[in-house]
Amino acid sequence: MIQRKRKNWFYMLFVWHGSVLPQLLPRLLLLLLFSAVIVYFKGTLYSYKIPLNPAPFTIFGLAVALFLGFRNNASYDRFWEGRKLWGALLIDTRSLLRQALSLTQPHIPSNTTDEFARLLIAFAYSLKHQLRKTDPSADFITRLSPELVQKLENVQFKPTLLIYEIGFWVQKARIEGYIDTIGQAAMDENLNKLSGIVGGCERIASTPIPYTYSVLLHRTVYLYCFFLPFGLVDSLGWLTPLITVFIAYTFVAFETIADELEEPFGTSPNDLALNAMCFTIETTLLEMIGKPIAPQPKSTKYFID
Question: pTM score, two decimals?
Fold first, then answer.
């Protein structure tokens, strides 16, 4: 995800990286060429003058804009729900480690709490990889024991198994007398919240906006843009290609942004910064157990200039 520091209004006119314009440029150039051909032939097709004027495009454009607005709202709701779930993940992992440190007896071995922290860190990375359908092996090897890495190798839902391992750590701590049953119940409540976060993320990832709705809106937007030059050519003349491309950029860009926000866990510039969130979780948990923190990789930074 790209988050930029606010620039002045003039600089914003020329922002390239992070905008959807690079994706749209071939389509807009095709539309520009098509509009120029329409102007050259004065809106005639095989000697037939297409009798269109700007009036119906004004009314129809308003309807398309309203539908695009609903589409963007639906996509942004998914994006924002995903962000809230990952914000809750940061809070709940901090709470669990704080409980593991404060509710256990003072004589608990430090390597035991270190193991608990690394389980929580590995859980965050495993959720990221499951949502992006990527291989988590490299992150597991540096954070988990070889036995647990091997155990996770052929597991499909790795975050769920790691929640089990975290729960098993809590149970073992109670059996060995490091925490009492009340402390175990308090930690188990936060473990249930982790399960809820996994379920919420899986719901977003596995339930896209209905495909037929997206297809209908996509076709409507592009038909509108390709018929638009016929309605503007008589009144605007050679300005028709420029005005058409400008209007098309607005409509098509809204649709493209909605497509990106619909799947918030991907790797496109406007998706959630899961790498940075995982690094934040790892950093704060390592600080709590007094362990050294690795330098922040460039790929995990929120701000990219």
Answer: 0.86
